[in-house]
Structure formats: C-alpha cells, structure tokens
Amino acid sequence: MSDTIHIVMKANKNQSPVLVTGGSGYLASHITARLLELGYTVHITVRDPEKRETYAHLEDLSRALPGKLRVFAADMLTHDAFAAAMEGCSHVFHTASPFRITGIRDARAELVDPAVEGTRNVLNTVNNTASVKRVVLTSSVVAIMGDAADVKYLDGGVFTEAQWNTSSTLSYQPYAYSKTMAEKTAWEMANAQKRWSMVVMNPGFILGPSLSKRTSSTSIDFMLSMGKGTYKTGVPAMHVAIVDVRDVAEAHVAGAFRETASGRHIIAREVVSFSDLAGMLRKEFPQYPLPSRQIPKWLFMIMGPLFGLGRKYIRRNTGIPFRVDNTYGIRDLGIEYTPAEKTLTDHFRQLIDDGLLPAR
C-alpha cells in the first residue's frame, strides 16, 4: 500500500468532521476506514440507516480506530438530502453513484439521473454549507475514454486527463455516459464559484479486498465469476486499466488534504489483458476453474450478448490495446501503486476467507 497518507497530519480534537457520500460502498468503505484511522469524525450517508448490516463493518472499525462514525440517511435524488450530513464538514468525498454495466432496463432512471442529479444535489448543498473547503469527486477513467477504439484519435495512443469520453451515449455504454455527464456537471458547478475547490479522481477498474462481505459490486462480481468458473472456457482479448481499491482510497485522502492537489487524476497502475489477470490468479489458486485460454473475437461476438455485451461494444474493445498516463496522479498525489499480483491475490483470498468462494 502507498505511503501517501503519511504526509497527512492526524486530525486534532478541534478538526471539523468530513463527509463520505455512499459511505458503505466498496471504495467508500476504504476511504472511511482511512479517515477513521487518521482520527477524523466521519459522516457517511446511506439509503436506509435501519439496515445496519450494510455498514456494520464500519461500526466495528470505528470502535477499534481513533475516529468517530456518524451515519445519516440520504437519497441522491432528493433536494437537500445531504444537508444534515454535511453540516459543519470541512471536506466532502462524493463517491455515491450507481455502477452497472449489464442488465440495464432504463439507463436514464438507473444510471444517468442518480449520477448527474445526485452530484448536482451534493454540490448545491456544498454551495449552501460555508464550512466546506474542498470536494473530492469520484469519477472514473470511463469519463476519459469510452472504448479502446477511441485510442486511434490520440497522439501517441495514450489517454491522459486532457481527454473526455465522446463515444458513449445514453443508449451505448450508458454507465460511462453517466460518469462523464456527472463529472462535467461537477466541473461546471465548481468553476461557477470560488469558495471551495474540487479535486477529481478518475480510477480504472477497481479491484482488491473488500472490507465487508458485500457482493453488490461489479468489481466483486467479476472476481466471483472468475473463481466460480463462469469464464473457464476462456476470456476475450480485451484490456483494462486496473488499480487497487486501497490505492484509490489513499488517492482520495491525499486529494483532500494536500493543499496543492488539483484537477483530474487518472488512478490506475497499469493496463492488462483479461488473460494476464487470469494468469496471475492461476499462479496462486491453480485449484480453481480459472480461464487458461483466450477466445477468438468471432466466438466472443456470439457469446458476448449472452453476458449482456453488445456486438458494437465487442467490435470496439476486443483486440485493441491502449495505454493510460498515470504520471500526473503519481506526481500530484504521491501515489505508490500496489503490484497487480498482490491486488488480485489479496482480493481472491478475501472472497475465500469470507466464504463467498468455496475453499478448495
């Protein structure tokens, strides 16, 4: 794990609280845990505080760490829903946003409105909360690139923070479209005022051990599918920019408390193929039905729709390598990335230890 956080002073008794929206989520839980470790009073929002099982792991952590946890109810689409949770806070980490790629029936209702209007509601509340100094927004690398094929429009074939996703739409890649529209909305609102600053994180595909036994995450579902043999016949020739969830949490905390931090940040260790990912896991877990070969594109064109992947997506992302430039995030935030092999093995082992994958 990165040593980034060592530059941050531990919170003193008079330090203002901080807010993490969607605080019980996969990434948000790691952000919350690091803030509790530093001694902050952390306000988190959840949909229903009565469902304590969704954030019990954070309550357990708060009892063992110097910080304090406070839980608030908030509906992303409700005006002023975040006012009580944000009261007195100096920093806001806005992580709450739906992450779904397949099985989408109404993209606007399920993805775009919660992402865009949720961001608008949070930042309107920031505008009305004088104590807030900085917002750290969780965007995504998909707000920078929509398809691997977009690389052909770039000088040198490298995606940087200067690019925006222009290929995703409401009907094609709606999750990527929702993240793009939400981040653009955030920048419009941030640039329209001068009291608070905003720092944006654009992480790649987040993997790494979860702090709870949750399975309602695309990242966790992917790892479970790998371990259960869903892809045992083979994986497509596709690439993905991956990053450890613990490193993304470190980046958020550094983005909040490093006064000089600014702008967008691609947060990704490296771009690897699905075959590479499977190979790393096979070294440590050969007893599981992990894929050992790459399926040809023509076969993926037939099989892909069975997994909810359209043929246009397959054409524009299969067999097309790309690169992302992570140097600004390293320089601006002091990130030191966890090796991909450790990320994957730690995640897989956590799933086994928590009983989400059978021990073999």
Structure description:
- The protein is an alpha/beta fold and 360 residues long.
- The protein has a single domain, classed as Rossmann fold.
- The chain is 37% helix and 15% strand.
- The protein has twelve helices and twelve strands.
- It has helices at 26-37, 56-64, 83-86, 107-127, 174-191, 218-228, 245-257, 274-284, 297-303, 311-317, 327-333, 340-353; strands at residues 18-21, 41-46, 68-73, 91-94, 134-138, 158-159, 197-203, 205-207, 239-244, 263-267, 270-273, 323-324.
- Strands 3-2-1-4-5-7-10 form a seven-stranded parallel β-sheet, sandwiched between helices. It has a three-stranded mixed β-sheet with strand order 8-9-11.
- Helix 1 links the parallel strand 1 (18-21) and strand 2 (41-46).
- The longest helix is centred in the N-terminal third of the chain and has 21 residues, at 107-127.
- The two termini are 28 Å apart.
- Mean pLDDT is 91; it is low at 1-7.
